Amino acid sequence: MTVLTVPSSQAQNLRRIIQLSGVVLGLDDKDNPTQLPGVHIYLPKAGRGTNTNPLGFFFKPVQVGDSIVISSVGYVRQDYFVPNHPSEYLTFIIELVQGVTYLREIEVLAFPTEEVFKRGHPGPENSHPRHQNRSALTEPGTAGPDDEDHAHGRTNESSILS
Asked: Is residue 29 situated within a structural domain?
């Protein structure tokens, strides 16, 4: 039988695990407390976390000394520090405060500049792939290799030979 022992100096360096749980609350439109679903409970040093369930409840094993970030869109982020608690379980009731972040307006273009857009953009009459790179015109009622309109008996002036 083998027995492993940990020297007391190493045992003191091991951080104790605590089951952290709680409920996250916010205020509704009438300033009544309500549970918040989908709030992020994140441990940055560990690179892991969880979300609150539909009733605003969460649980997560943490170590004494961990920092915890609680955040949700529309609310002010809060940071907590896991204290050295005598029990194996620690429960929080967290109240998030509504917060608004204003973002400046941006313009999204498919091209790096407006000038490049104007030079490289085809006009509306040539923008559909069907109207680009026609290799040959066909007579009315005959279908070309990629001409679906002719296959169905539809023609237009650009496909009629004069």
From this structure: yes
pTM, 2 dp: 0.56
Q: What is the pLDDT along the chain (162 residues), one digit of tens a residue?
A: 445 444 544 445 567 899 999 999 998 888 899 999 999 999 999 999 999 999 999 999 999 999 999 999 999 999 999 998 889 999 999 999 999 888 899 888 777 777 887 777 665 554 555 545 544 444 455 444 455 554 445 555 444 444
Residue 145: inside a domain? no
- Within a domain: 104: no
Domains contained in the chain, number? 1
Write the CATH number for 56.
Answer: 2.60.40.10
Which of these, 18, 73, 77, 75, lies nearest to 44 by C-alpha position?
Answer: 77
Tokens 């069907």 locate to: 130
Give the count of beta carbons closer than 10 Å to the beta carbon of residue 75.
19
Task: Residue 52: give the domain boundaries.
Answer: 15-95
Strand order of the β-sheet with 67-71 is 48-51, 40-43, 67-71, 78-81
Q: Which of 70, 71, 74 is nearest to 82 (CA)?
A: 70
